[in-house]
Description:
Elements: H1 3-14, E1 18-24, H2 30-39, E2 47-51, H3 62-73, H4 78-89, E3 97-101, H5 103-109, H6 111-121, E4 125-128, H7 140-145, E5 149-150, E6 153-154, H8 163-167, E7 174-177, H9 190-204, E8 208-211, H10 217-224, E9 229-232, H11 234-241, H12 246-261
Parallel strand pairs: 1-2, 1-9, 2-3, 3-4, 4-5, 6-7, 7-8, 8-9
Helix pairs in contact: 2-4, 4-6, 10-12
Amino acid sequence: MTRIDAKFEDLRARGKKAFVSYVMAGDPDFDRSLEIVRGLPAAGVDIIELGLPFTDPMADGPTIQLAGQRALEGGMTLNRTLEMVRAFRENDDTTPIVLMGYYNPIYSMGVEKFLTEAKDAGIDGLIVVDLPPEEDIELCLPAQDAGLNFIRLATPTTDDKRLPRVVQNTSGFVYYVSITGITGSAEANATDVSPEVKRIQKASGLPVIVGFGVNTPEKARAIAEVADGVVIGSAIVNRIANGDSTEDVLAFVKALADGAHSA
């Protein structure tokens, strides 16, 4: 059982929905980013989604793209990202961490080396948005063999014919993208999301976490009421970009987490 599996088991036992927060590793710099990440569990975050900076993101809107640019300009790399996770694990051995990014940096390091390093650092799951199920042999299956969850995205355009293939080798949870488009570009609607969540739950047998288009405690609660949890990223990253103090960023995260947990 991974930390992700254990977290969902604990949440189910307590009748709670999951709150997942996304932040970009190294934004605005290594030390400040680590400080924020270390504060997320106390702010109510159940699972940390840690962005891996990449020069050519294809699913990210301007907010996340700019965060990645800031991190890269500050010297953030895949190795430094894993170093950050190791530093986090010095004080927290229970909060799951999902690394979210693109395949190129992993491919450049080498899959076998990456998986060994990621597991050793304390990564629990991967979301690699540009590797479709047809390429499961590249990373998905080796990751699962290494004891990491491989989390797949489903979208409003994932029809009943495609869905079984998408969830076939998925583990941990399914990330449902609530909108068609990039991060931060539209707002999620619980009425539209609800039937899609049920469809994916039935097909996968896994928790379904909804992301994209959620940016307030009220929306977090509304989405969590119809799903197994909610992911918020751009709204948090915006606070970091605006220069908010770590305390203010974490206070905002706590308000979002309280919203999701009140569902």
